[in-house]
Amino acid sequence: MSLALNPLFLPPALDDFVFDPALVPEARRQFVPRYGDPGWSVLALTQNPSATNDIIYWRWFPEVFREPFRFASWSLINHPLPDENVARHGAAMRSKLSAGRILKTVNQWSQFAEWLHERGITRLSQVVTEDLADFALQLDKKRGLARNTAVGYLVGLSRLHYYGRYLPPDDRLVEPPWVSEGMDDYLPAASPVGENITEPISPATMGPLLVWALRFVEEYADDILTAYEEHCRLVAVADALDVPLTPGCGDGLVSFLEQLEAEGKPVPVTAWNPKKPLAAAGIFLAARTGTPPKKVHATMRRPRWKAYTRDHHGPCLLEAPVTAQLGGEPWHEPFEFYSITTLVKHLVTACFIVLGYLTGMRTGEVLGLENGCCPDPEGEKEAARRHLIYGRVFKVARDEDGNHDSAGIVREAPWVAVPQAVATVRVLERLSGDGLLFAAEVHDPRLPERRTGRSLAIATMSNRIESFIEWANAHAEARGRQVEAIPRDSHGRVGTGRFRRTLAWHIARRPGGLVALAVQYGHMRTLISEGYGSRSRGGIHDLLDFETARNVAEHLSEVHEAIQDGEGVSGPAAKRLINAAAQEHHRFGGIIASVRQARSLLADPTLNVFENKEAFLFCNYDRAKALCHPGRGGKNDVPSLDRCKVNCANIARTDSHARQLREAADGLGRQAASRLVPEPLADRLQGRAQVLTELADQHDNDRVVAGTEVTEA
Question: How high is the pLDDT of residue 440?
Answer without folding.
Answer: 85
